[in-house]
Amino acid sequence: MIHFDLDKHDINHIHFIGIGGISMSAIAEVLLTFGYNVSGSDMKSSKITEKLLKKGAKIFIGHHEDNLHSCDLVVYTAAVKEDNPELQKANKLNIPVISRAEMLGLLMKKFKSSIAVSGTHGKTTTTSMISLILEYSDFNPTILVGGELDQIGGNVKVGSRDYFVTEACEYVGSFLKFFPHIGIILNIDADHLDYFKDLDHIIDTFTKFASLIPKNGFLIACKDDKNVQKILPKLNCHILTYGLNNSCNYWADNIQFNDRGHPNFNVFFNNKFLGKFELSIPGKHNIYNALASIACCHNLNVPVEKIIKNLKAFKGTHRRFDVLGKIDDITIIDDYAHHPTEIKATLDAASKLPHNRLWCIFQPHTYTRTKALLNDFASSFDLADKIIITDIYAAREKDTGQIHSKDLVKAIQAYHKDVSYMDTFEKITAYIRKYAQPNDLVLTMGAGDIYKVGKMLLEKDKIKG
């Protein structure tokens, strides 16, 4: 294990391979703030790398062994392969090398109370909710979030050493490198099957994560999730549950939605009325995210009235039901949903908005996920009126030819007839411009670059133009 002390600077110069990633860049910014020399490389320049450059990091575009200059420690992401020239050079020079997850775990050890938000879905939103409640309640937390949050000016905010709030991703068992004082498990679902063997493997990994919580810490868990329920009897830490029934410690009742799909609901703690809450983001799934946030902050002694006020002030993060704009009375929304459960939740939220027809433009994310969950994807689009599927976003994978978006279209046709495949964003935007009608809602979904479709539509003065 690398010895790392934020204050003593035994390690001074830290190099990041893949510094433009949302989590890597956040860690790099924290270290810059604490006075470390930071350098890093990425395949292309971005707003994130430009921001780090302005803050004092040395940025290299492209990966090359010459990018390593007198560094004391190298940090890499899960996407970096063994043949990466910088990784090979570091190993050749015997420079210590650790993963992003290990680096984040080392950071967490330096805070009095580290809050790690895990779950297959909802991590970014819940982390953001907790962060803003604590920030606006004068807790001055240090925040690392997996999305762009306007209220903190990006994806990271360096505060005091008391509270550290971060997402905890299960992919390749990353969160098993963490040191949480407070752990949150929102849900457990089949995903990342390019790494996990099956659902049992996933459940076992979440069990190991929860087991990292010390006895004086606590786990906040969604009792309504059947897979989360399976791990609770195996744990020794203090457990707080939440859900939509009164067997939970925190539960919501009297749920109502306004004409924008925003819910309001009563919350009870151990069957005593805690307060009436209202969200400024849509969807039933966000009630669950809010309950996890309420449980966390209430147990950190944040006054209930401040939790109520700050949850209502939360407007969401970028790419989470992000209303991009409106043109010719056609509303364009973008969302990060890329798993069948997320698609259903997002379409359910969209269906509660006043609209004529609901268009869903979906970009599958990774070949492995598309193939493994093909049947689940096929039945996820019931609430959409018109469906367009575009090519699979490869991300970290290579196309082996075993699955294609046309296979998904064929599978969807068993449940929904109005579905088509289009291979370019230009074809999609042209089709929408031609056939979209006033009061239609156009929803782009996926974890890749499908958001560009919405931007392309809004670049035109008139959608029919």
UniProtKB/TrEMBL annotation:
EC number(s) recorded for this UniProt protein: 6.3.2.8
GO biological process, one term: cell division
Domain Mur ligase central: 117-297
InterPro entries in alphabetical order: Mur-like_cat_sf, Mur_ligase_C, Mur_ligase_C_dom_sf, Mur_ligase_cen, Mur_ligase_N, MurCDEF_pg_biosynth, UDP-N-AcMur_Ala_ligase_MurC
GO molecular function: ATP binding; UDP-N-acetylmuramate-L-alanine ligase activity
Class in the EC hierarchy, top level: ligase
Subcellular location(s) per record: Cytoplasm
Reactions catalysed according to its record: UDP-N-acetyl-alpha-D-muramate + L-alanine + ATP = UDP-N-acetyl-alpha-D-muramoyl-L-alanine + ADP + phosphate + H(+)
Keyword ATP-binding belongs to the record: yes
Chief place where the protein resides: cytoplasm
Entry's Gene Ontology cellular component terms: cytoplasm
Pfam families the record matches: Mur_ligase, Mur_ligase_C, Mur_ligase_M
PANTHER family membership: UDP-N-ACETYLMURAMATE--L-ALANINE LIGASE, UDP-N-ACETYLMURAMATE--L-ALANINE LIGASE-RELATED
Function as written in the Swiss-Prot or TrEMBL entry: Cell wall formation.
NCBIfam families (UniProt xref): murC
Protein name listed in UniProt: UDP-N-acetylmuramate--L-alanine ligase
Native source species: Crassaminicella thermophila
Organism lineage string: Bacteria, Bacillati, Bacillota, Clostridia, Eubacteriales
Gene behind the chain: murC
